[in-house]
Write a structure and sequence with these properties.
elongated, 167 residues, 7 strands, single chain, alpha/beta
């Protein structure tokens, strides 16, 4: 199992990992130590909150380490003017008589509620490499699928403006 990421995704994750290890971890350990000194741990809210925040940081560190370790670097550019990573794609959904716009991003930056679709999602996979005017079929499950027509492709690039997902 690997994660399809760009070089910039990897750089951002390494930067966050360093920040969490070098800066945040010592601060959180100190906060736990200070809160522990307040006395009775069974009724010490500050201790529980500090410990919880420290554990969240450690969990994020493990997550980032795993994502970096299993990363598979993918190119950002597309071929022949087809849909590629970071492109904004306007599609027409005949079934709903609606037009929608998606931006194709890596899994670490997806946010479907805001139109950021992962390159690994069914829609992202179906759109990759396709041209304006192509009809793309999305098979949701064995009983249902739908078509979309690509109306326009606006070429994009990773400007690091899309933040990494927290989880």
């Amino acid at each position: 199992m690997h994660n399809d990421l760009t070089k910039k995704d990897l750089e951002l994750m390494k930067k966050e990992l360093d920040e969490r290890r070098i800066v945040l971890r010592p601060k959180l350990l100190e906060a736990v130590k200070v809160a522990r000194a307040f006395g009775d741990l069974s009724e010490n809210f500050e201790y529980k909150a500090a410990k919880q925040e420290k554990n969240r940081n450690e969990s994020r560190i493990r997550y980032l380490e795993n994502m970096i370790r299993t990363a598979h670097i993918i190119p950002e550019g597309g071929k022949n003017g087809g849909v590629a990573l970071y492109d904004k794609v306007t599609v027409f959904l005949p079934e709903d008589n609606e037009t929608e716009e998606f931006q194709i991003v890596t899994t670490m930056r997806k946010d479907p509620l805001h139109g950021l679709i992962s390159v690994e999602s069914p829609v992202g996979k179906a759109l990759m490499g396709k041209q304006v005017g192509d009809i793309v079929h999305i098979q949701v499950d064995e009983h249902y699928g739908y078509d979309m027509e690509i109306r326009s492709i606006e070429k994009g690039q990773d400007d690091s403006g899309i933040p990494l997902n927290q989880y």
